[in-house]
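Reopening this ticket.

The earlier resolution said the output was attached, but the attachment link was broken on my side. Pasting everything inline this time so it's all in one place.
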Amino acid sequence: MFGFRFVQARGRRVNNWTLLVGQTVQVWRGDDIVDQGMVEAVTPDGSILWLTQRGAIERRMVTKERGTGLRVQLIN
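Inline output:
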């Protein structure tokens, strides 16, 4: 799945992951979007989050590591 480009990265880049509970986000590595979904929970230090998704994999853990970023999609 990594390296698969869902769509062009949209929204604003967010460094403080603790603010993202309930937000729809895209997870990117380098220039590639590698995942997307709604943030269900974040650890108090903001280093790990759980992403709720549709499909076969309903929940995924994402860790903050070098080269991994999040963008928040604005929902109208």
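Reporter confirms the inline version is readable. The chain has one domain: 12-72. DSSP finds no helices and six strands in the chain.
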